Amino acid sequence: MLKTLILKNLVLIEKAEVGFEKGFTTITGETGAGKTVLIEALRLILGERTDASKVRKGCEKALIQASFSLNDSSALHKLFEEAGLSLSEKEELILTREISSAGKSRAYACGQMVPIAFLQKIAPHLIDF
């Protein structure tokens, strides 16, 4: 389950932190309030391709961070193990994605650098779109 989503310098958003609780969450707001940016951030943290246009004007990089609670994480542990990575026994997974103003992108899972393809591989175990 998605617990938190943190955005820094992503498109028009300077800084935002959104917390999610168990149950149904609705995101509402006026046109231009940033609802689409939140969905885009989720897609980026789960491995969607990106470019420099996602970085807020005048900033060097954008950052997206998401934390997920892991109830039944056996499938994720296996994917991490197969990739030669470690997933702590904690019941939380933190994913981070940095996008530079040059369009380069880096991804991290629990502080370990991972290929973007790895985010794509674990995405179905975290969120359904």
Structural features:
6 strands; 129 residues; Rossmann fold; alpha+beta; 6-stranded antiparallel beta sheet; 3 helices
CATH-level-2 architecture: 3-Layer(aba) Sandwich
Structural class comes to alpha+beta
- What is the molecular shape? globular
Count the domains: 1
Low-confidence stretches: none
Quick structural overview:
This protein is α+β, with helices and mostly antiparallel strands and 129 residues long. It is built from three helices and six strands; from the N terminus they run ββαβαβββα.
Architecture overview:
By secondary structure, the chain is an alpha+beta fold. A hairpin with a 2-residue loop joins strand 1 and strand 2. The model has no long low-confidence stretch (mean pLDDT 90).
Topology:
Layout: E1 2-10, E2 13-19, H1 35-45, E3 61-69, H2 74-82, E4 92-100, E5 105-109, E6 112-114, H3 116-122
Antiparallel strand pairs: 1-2, 1-3, 3-4, 4-5, 5-6
